[in-house]
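Bench notes, afternoon.
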Amino acid sequence: MQIPENDELIFRHKMNKRIDASSQSLATLRTKIKEEKKGNADFSTTIFELELANGYMKIKLENYTQPGQAEWEIFKKEFSTKMNDWNIEFTDFVSTI
């Protein structure tokens, strides 16, 4: 069974907006840490790891080709979970600064 086109478009649009917002948040945080001279190797490493994970998610979303409805539903659920996990990790990191 084929995936309804607007379901895919809506999901991709929502996730791309979240990824872009995450990228912006990371850039803002990196600047803030640098300006306040709070930066240390641990902060830089964590930001770098979050940036990598965010970039990976963007690529994964862009490269996904849906073989069918059931696979698409699994992908959406797993992708949403990973995005939520990323947001939790980011929020936890920000709370340590």
